[in-house]
Design goal:
The complex is a heterotetramer of chains A (114), B (236), C (495) and D (94). Chain B is mostly helical and 236 residues long. Chain B is built from 9 helices and 2 strands. Chain B has one domain. In chain B, strands 1-2 form a two-stranded antiparallel ribbon. The longest helix of chain B is centred in the last third of the chain and has 25 residues. In chain C, 76% of the residues lie in helices and 2% in strands. In chain C, strands 1-2 form a two-stranded antiparallel sheet. In chain C, α2 runs antiparallel to α3, α4 runs parallel beside α10 and α13 runs antiparallel to α15. The relative contact order of chain C is 0.10. Chain D has one domain. Classes of the chains: A mainly alpha (114), B mainly alpha (236), C mainly alpha (495), D mainly alpha (94).
Chain lengths: 114, 236, 495, 94
């Protein structure tokens, strides 16, 4: 039996992948990429979770053996920022494409280019 | 058409099944820590931070964070390069409503202050430089929404961005000079500064300094991205 | 000097890139010459590291933050990394000089920053010893490559960049899932410790994780199903950037792939991953050569040829033997030199004659003799004629392939080479035996650069022994994982 | 099944539903809102998985700012997806 968190994470990854594979509007493809990244982040955090433990902030009353793994959380912090950087970059390329071709449909862009 | 869609769905489900098989070997909720346990055991003595995630992000794996800041810098540079125009201007036509404009005027300093609070207390409470910087960028976003003609001071922002990045690398290089390692925490490990107040503000070695730098940098970069995306070319 | 100062290889490009905005007021030429200066200094540092590593025979382990691995992140400048960091820095230097003439599109300051960060990303990917750090450097490389691909701001450039972004996004997500699986089953991210613990890993998890990581890196390394971005991007990017892509960005990807492949060699399901990779690499070679045959744009044609050569390197690494890895590394060195030269020369022709279409190359031997000479040397070398450097590495790769019993792969690769010979000789014929336009003055600096690289090609071709010994040492660095584990001072957490 | 578990199931279900809607809606502005909703539900899940730092960052950067950047991009391009015959996977074709 697979955990509900794993299920949610894999579902997000697959939905994002579906959008990238099937959709033709560039912004839709980028939305798909963004959803996929969220899914991957959720997966990483779920891998680091230990049942019954609390957040890794070692203030009063929480000892080293009562906290969850801090590493995946640090990794996901990095991954989120990288994700938003990629998204911003991709959107500016999309704006550039729209300025050149007047459409966001990839098929039409290929046709216009000839 | 429908056939292709179904084919896509089937192949995606196959990938999902394959992933699930791999994940079955990584049981959920079990203690699998190896290096993580070491961090939890030693974080207070070695870095002076209470928040272990912050310690890992800034101190133990500080190299990753330097890279991450660089990625954001590339994004803001790249957006600036691609949307570069000889002359450009904001094209918004409608001013925000009265509620928005007055609210923005009132709220702006507090939002900035709140962002600063988040990144200064990164080693004690959840948060840190990235959410703090994003909060500051949100304050500028509010200004853009509320006022038609508002623009950030570009030159100053670009220079701040560069200076903040340089000071991050410089902190690392000072560590190389004092402690012999790049990004070495010289404040905590060489000077033992603030050792007696773990859990209070003045502790955590160079974590507050670096998080302040990151907060400023992230705030200016994200506002720069917003600025480049909102402006369009004007023909003369 | 202390070995820790090798961290300057990362710190210098970073701090210089952050310094560029402050330099903006000083004018465009100041920025261009600043770029040349920084890359020259970087080459100097890289030469120092190279000299250190090869004279002592011991790798430099840079420990960031003073934390011992696996607690902290370490950089590993072994025989391979120090050699390739030197190649990265030297080629960046040449390209910075080339950029003095080749880059006219605004804004120059952003170009300089992205250029430095692309170099930084490739350096970091080659040097790092931690898989998540590898991911971060991969993203640095990839995002600056996206921006630089679209830098010319034409429609084609934007479309190529978009393709690259979509593929790169899928790749990086899959790479992260792979990291999650490996971390979840071993609890560590350090490559040396992963290698140590690999035998204890669950085979299914290892297979899925390794396959995902290979899949993620295949975008950077241009392995077959994920390399559709490459020809478009090579064609549309500014000329110096194309040369950088071909000379070291791809190499960084393929090295990372080989490194991760070999540190996981103790896991139970290793050989099945290898077999998959051999099939994909052979397909890359064959499909790229066939696609190159029908191109009318020379830059695009050379791009396809570059992809095919990369497939050959991937094939050599996927064999799983010492001789294969050595041959692959040797081919990487040769290919970096030859393709840098070809792309400078083709880019220079495109700059002066207004486009890299095949018609522009008619009679080039009379119009631009030095450039045409360089292109001829590059073409002959790429095809694999004896007395040129690629001959030696190609022969060794094919021998290693036959040695492992993959006769079909060797036959396919050889017949692809014949196809390659056809289109390169067509180009040579057009250059030397067709009538063209009037003679054009050639820039002295660019001529010197291509002549230097051409001289290197011929020298390695005639005296391959020194380069081969370098390649053997570097190959042993990748292949002998036990030495790699011993060289990294692991703290012994847990294990 | 205790109460915490049923809340978890509900949030995951809502998250997956908003992801499907974000992909299927033809109005891109609505799709972006759906994407932001996915990020918000994910940040709730991060909070339940004892990762408050990540939850904050995801809410501030993943949900708010990336949605804002998407909306700016839509403003400068077009709002509706056009209906066309399907020909998927343009990015793997040479």
């Amino acid at each position: 039996m697979i955990s509900v968190y794993y299920f949610g994470a894999i579902a997000l990854v697959l939905i994002g992948l579906y959008a990238i594979l099937v959709k033709k509007n560039l912004l839709k493809i980028l939305i798909g990429l963004s959803i996929m990244e969220t899914g991957v982040n959720l997966l990483l955090i779920s891998v680091g979770y230990v049942s019954g433990r609390s957040a890794p902030i070692l203030s009063e009353g929480i000892g080293p053996s009562q906290a969850v793994d801090p590493i995946p959380q640090a990794l996901v912090l990095t991954a989120i920022v990288i994700g938003v950087a990629t998204t911003a970059m991709a959107l500016s390329v999309a704006i550039l494409l729209y300025e050149k071709y007047g459409t966001l449909n990839v098929e039409e862009i290929r046709r216009l280019r000839g | 058409m429908v056939v292709k869609r179904i084919l896509a769905i089937i192949s995606i489900l196959l990938i999902g099944y394959w992933l699930a098989q791999g994940l079955a070997g990584v049981p959920f909720g079990q203690d699998k820590m190896l290096v993580g346990q070491y961090y939890l055991d030693n974080v207070k003595q070695q870095t002076g931070a209470v928040n272990a995630v912050t310690a890992v992000v800034v101190n133990y794996r500080g190299f990753d964070t330097l890279g991450e800041v660089t990625v954001l810098f590339i994004a803001s540079t790249g957006v600036g390069a691609l949307l570069w125009k000889k002359k450009k201007k904001r094209t918004a036509k409608t001013e925000g409503s009265v509620v928005l404009t007055t609210g923005t005027k009132l709220l702006f300093p507090f939002v900035v202050l709140f962002g600063a609070y988040i990144f200064i207390h990164g080693h004690l409470t959840p948060g840190g430089g990235f959410p703090g910087g994003a909060t500051i960028a949100t304050a500028f976003l509010l200004l853009y929404m509320a006022f038609v003609v508002y623009e950030i001071p570009h030159k100053a922002f670009e220079k701040t961005e560069g200076l903040a990045g340089m000071s991050y690398v410089l902190v690392g290089l000072i560590g190389l000079a004092i402690g012999g390692y790049f990004l070495f925490d010289w404040i905590w490990q060489t000077w033992h500064f603030g050792t007696e107040n773990i859990g209070r503000l003045i502790s955590g070695g160079f974590i507050p300094i670096i998080y302040t730098i990151i907060g400023i940098k992230v705030g200016t970069e994200l506002s720069g991205i917003i600025d480049s995306m909102l402006k369009e070319e004007v023909s003369e | 000097m202390n070995g820790q100062y090798a961290a300057l290889l990362i710190a210098l490009p970073l701090i210089s890139a952050f310094f560029v905005p402050l330099l903006k007021g000083a004018g465009k030429n100041a920025i261009r010459y600043f770029l040349v200066l920084v890359t020259a200094v970087q080459t100097g540092i890289a030469a120092w590291v190279f000299q250190w590593v090869y004279s002592t025979g011991k790798p430099i382990i840079v420990m960031a933050g003073g934390w011992k691995p696996p607690i902290g992140i370490n950089l590993y400048f072994g025989h391979f990394a120090s050699l390739f960091v030197l190649i990265v820095a030297a080629i960046s230097f040449l390209m910075a000089v080339f950029s003095l003439r080749a880059i006219k599109v605004e804004p120059i300051d952003k170009y300089a920053m992205l250029f430095l960060l692309l170099m930084l990303g490739a350096t970091g990917m080659i040097a790092t010893g931690d898989i998540f750090n590898l991911f971060v450097f991969m993203e640095i490389t990839a995002i600056s490559a996206y921006a630089l691909t679209a830098y010319n701001k034409t429609g084609e450039a934007a479309e190529a960049s978009m393709k690259y972004i979509v593929l790169g996004g899928i790749g990086s997500s899959f790479f992260l899932i792979g990291i999650a699986l490996i971390y979840g089953s071993l609890g560590t991210l350090n490559m040396a410790q992963i290698a140590q613990l690999a035998a204890t890993m669950d085979p299914t998890v290892a297979q899925v994780g390794l396959a995902l990581i290979i899949f993620g890196l295949a975008v950077e390394a241009e392995i077959f199903p994920l390399n559709a971005w490459a020809p478009d991007a090579y064609q549309a990017a500014p000329h110096p950037i194309t040369a950088m892509f071909s000379a070291f960005v791809v190499k960084a990807g393929i090295y990372a792939m080989a490194r991760l492949l070999y540190i996981m060699q103790d896991v139970g399901s290793w050989s099945s991953v290898l077999r998959l990779l051999i099939i994909l690499a052979t397909l890359t070679v064959v499909i790229a050569e066939l696609a190159a045959l029908r191109q009318r744009n020379v830059k695009r044609m050379v791009a396809y040829s570059s992809i095919a050569q990369i497939g050959l390197i991937a094939l050599a690494f996927a064999l799983g033997t010492q001789s294969g890895v050595d041959a692959g590394v040797f081919h990487m060195i040769n290919h970096a030199i030859v393709k840098a030269m070809l792309f400078i020369a083709v880019g220079y022709v495109a700059m002066t004659l207004g486009g890299a279409d095949f018609e522009n190359f008619y009679g080039l031997g009379k119009r631009m003799p030095i450039t045409a000479f360089a292109i001829s040397v590059g073409a002959i070398a790429t095809v694999g004629i004896p007395l040129f450097n690629i001959f030696w590495s190609k022969v060794r790769i094919i021998l290693a392939t036959l040695g492992m019993g993959y006769t079909w792969a060797a036959v396919l690769v050889l017949s692809a080479s014949v196809v390659e010979a056809v289109y390169y000789f067509r180009l040579l014929y057009a250059m030397w035996f067709h009538k063209g336009g009037a003679k054009v003055d050639e820039n002295i600096v660019i001529s010197l650069m291509v002549l230097l690289l051409a001289a290197l090609v011929v020298v390695i071709g005639i005296y391959p022994d020194y380069a081969w010994s370098l390649a053997q040492k570097a190959g042993a660095d990748i292949f002998k994982v036990a030495d790699y584990i011993n060289n990294v001072p692991l703290m012994g957490v847990g294990a | 099944m205790n109460c915490i578990t049923c809340i978890e199931y509900m949030i995951v279900a809502l998250m997956v539903i908003s992801a499907v809607l974000a992909v299927e809606w033809r109005d891109l502005l609505a799709a972006v809102v759906g994407m932001a909703a996915v990020s918000l539900f994910a940040s709730l899940l991060f909070f339940m998985l004892q990762a408050p730092d990540v939850a904050m960052t995801e809410a501030a950067i993943g949900a708010a700012l990336s949605a804002a950047v998407f909306i700016f991009a839509i403003k400068r391009t077009q709002r509706f997806e056009t209906e066309e015959e399907e020909k998927p996977g343009w990015w793997v074709r040479w």
